[in-house]
Design the sequence.
């Protein structure tokens, strides 16, 4: 399933739902059982993560929908939201195709954020040089 597929990647650390629920309960974030961007940021910090992928699936009137959001742990901002549609009977093939999509999107988000950090660092260095005169 999705967790097994994602845990095969060295670039992704998968945390079991039981561990997440323990942390949520401990931090009194459990509430409705849904994780919003703010609680995801807090949870991610507790787990030592930089990004958190949350999502779910549902079957509504004969249609399957699988969604995920990549959340920046530091800001709580949703960096990417995506999903796929299928038929409820196609859950396993949809799930199998979804894992590489999650990994690819997460990798792209990381690259964009690293590029932004490098650019910011260069701008700050240049500003410091100009200030030094």
Sequence:
């Amino acid at each position: 399933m999705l967790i097994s597929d994602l845990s095969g990647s060295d670039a992704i650390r998968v945390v079991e739902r039981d561990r997440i629920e323990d942390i949520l309960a401990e931090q009194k974030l459990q509430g409705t059982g849904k994780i919003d961007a703010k609680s995801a940021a807090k949870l991610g910090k507790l787990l030592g993560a930089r990004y958190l992928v949350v999502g779910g699936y549902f079957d509504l009137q004969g249609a399957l929908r699988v969604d995920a959001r990549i959340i920046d742990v530091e800001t709580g901002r949703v960096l990417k939201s995506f999903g796929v549609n299928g038929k409820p009977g196609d859950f396993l093939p949809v799930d199998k195709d979804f894992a590489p999509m999650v990994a690819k999107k997460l990798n792209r988000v990381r690259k964009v954020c690293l590029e932004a950090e490098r650019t910011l660092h260069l701008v700050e260095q240049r500003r410091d040089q100009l200030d030094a005169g």
